[in-house]
Write a structure and sequence with these properties.
By secondary structure, this protein is mainly alpha-helical. It is 73% helix and 0% strand. α1 runs parallel beside α3 and α3 packs parallel to α5. The longest helix is centred in the N-terminal third of the chain and has 13 residues.
């Protein structure tokens, strides 16, 4: 709840700090927690940080969902990094997730 609340309040660094605290306690955050941080960074136009947290989610052996990919793809595209947006779209398809309208429209 704290992670999502901070993310929705436009405080992704604080949300990420809570995510780190969970990981430091040897617990594994769920996909929803990672998505909150990814989306918060995406909304601020910080595709690099959003991508960092996507890679952290994958490193934690969690499977990103369509929300994860759509947020990141949108962030990359808004930032002008179309190549990264297309690469993440390809990765999404390779993981057998069907891109929604948001993912396609972003690219």
């Amino acid at each position: 709840i704290m992670i999502d609340a901070c993310a929705k309040a436009g405080q992704p660094a604080i949300a990420a700090g809570w995510l780190d605290k969970i990981r430091e306690a040897s617990l594994v955050p769920n996909v929803f927690a990672f998505n909150s941080v990814i989306d918060a960074y995406s909304r601020l136009g910080d595709a690099s940080s959003a991508e960092h947290w996507m890679r952290q989610m994958i490193s934690a052996r969690l499977s990103p969902d369509s929300t994860s990919y759509s947020s990141l793809i949108s962030s990359c595209a808004r930032g002008g990094d179309v190549d990264s947006a297309v690469d993440w779209l390809r990765t999404m398809v390779e993981t057998s997730l069907e891109p929604g309208q948001a993912a396609f429209c972003a690219v």
